[in-house]
Design brief:
Length: about 350
């Protein structure tokens, strides 16, 4: 829907008068471009006819070899003027398709360079304004959606802990009391039931921690990433080497949450799709920016981006960051989250 509005606005811009309002020309940019080329060619022909009329130069029939350089020079001059006019007028349009691909990939801040005045210049300015509004609306919508998602995660995690977790704990105690007074023949069955309930309780706690990591709120980002890497190594069987900068300055809550969620999703993708034997998680400063990097030695970048990668891009855009992917040194996937220095600082109280 957003791109449809952009296309419609671009069409209105192309069809609109050049100067805007009642003082503008009624001709379209296409018409003005036509007249530029037409006028340039007219000047060339006029100059050529003037030279033929006022100079002793003549053109024989058939054309002599000595006259070919003059005719060739005239043709080259005409083509050269056409090429200059068309190149200067249309060259910014070459960047439209790459820009559209970058915007579709949720890369923020990309704009077409200004070309000054003129038809294409106004078209570029209109497109950049539309991209500004689109990016602002998208970030606002993403912020609301992610805030609602985190609120729902917190609610579900709390219910899992308080309701289901407590019920399973009570069930464990009941089984323990029943096993203490049960005949010898039933104790083994009760013990098996107790272990099953205990495993279910552990799984509920694990899910609750993934939905809302308490360690992130209690101990901070570095401890949360360390716990995430350790838990991933145990559960997924893929060792994760950590390189976390302990001297990082305080970060905003939104930034910490985005970094944690991106790391969580990237490691989940390693476990599900990469077929990796090792992974690396690093967090630090690079040229003043906050940089999170997750790399593995698996099968490399995916052919098509799925919902998980798209979600990571949305989270990155929420805090003014950018997510990039490439081939890691070991041949696997390398995911890099870069958050600019201004966005990564903790807001002043």
């Amino acid at each position: 829907m957003a791109w449809g509005s952009i296309v419609a606005a671009l069409r209105r811009t192309v069809r609109a008068p050049a100067g805007g309002g009642e003082h503008g020309s009624a001709r379209s940019p296409t018409t003005r471009l036509f007249w530029r080329i037409f006028a340039g060619n007219g000047v060339i022909f006029a100059v050529g006819l003037t030279l033929l009329a006022l100079s002793p130069a003549t053109v024989s029939s058939p054309v002599l070899l000595a006259e070919l350089p003059v005719l060739t020079a005239g043709l080259a001059l005409m083509l050269g003027i056409n090429a200059v006019v068309l190149r200067n007028s249309l060259s910014p349009l070459d960047q439209l398709a790459p820009l559209a691909e970058r915007v579709a990939a949720l890369r923020t801040g990309d704009r077409l360079p200004s070309t000054g005045d003129g038809d294409v210049g106004r078209l570029v300015a209109t497109l950049n304004d539309l991209l500004d509004r689109l990016e602002s609306d998208r970030n606002s919508g993403a912020a609301l959606a992610l805030a609602a998602q985190e609120t729902e995660r917190r609610r579900i995690a709390q219910e899992l802990h308080d309701e289901i977790g407590q019920s399973l704990t009570v069930a464990l105690l009941d089984l323990k009391r029943a096993m203490d007074h049960a005949p010898e023949g039933l104790r083994e069955q009760l013990h098996n039931a107790q272990e099953t309930v205990r495993a279910g309780l552990d799984e509920v706690r694990h899910v609750a921690r993934r939905l809302r990591p308490g360690v992130l709120d209690d101990l901070g980002l570095l401890s949360a990433l360390t716990a995430l890497a350790v838990e991933f190594s145990k559960a997924g069987g893929v060792p994760v080497r950590r390189a976390l900068d302990p001297a990082l300055p305080p970060l905003g809550d939104d930034v910490e949450l985005v970094v944690y969620r991106v790391a969580q999703e990237a490691l989940t993708n390693v476990a599900r799709h990469a077929h990796a034997t090792a992974a690396e998680l690093s967090l630090g400063r690079r040229n003043g920016d906050l940089v999170l990097e997750i790399a593995d030695d698996g099968k490399g970048p995916p052919v098509r981006e799925g919902a998980g990668i798209h979600g990571m891009r949305e989270r990155a855009a929420l805090v003014g960051g950018r997510l990039t992917m490439g081939t890691a040194a070991g041949g696997g996937l390398r995911v890099v989250l870069t958050i600019p220095r201004a966005a990564g600082r903790e807001p002043a109280p």
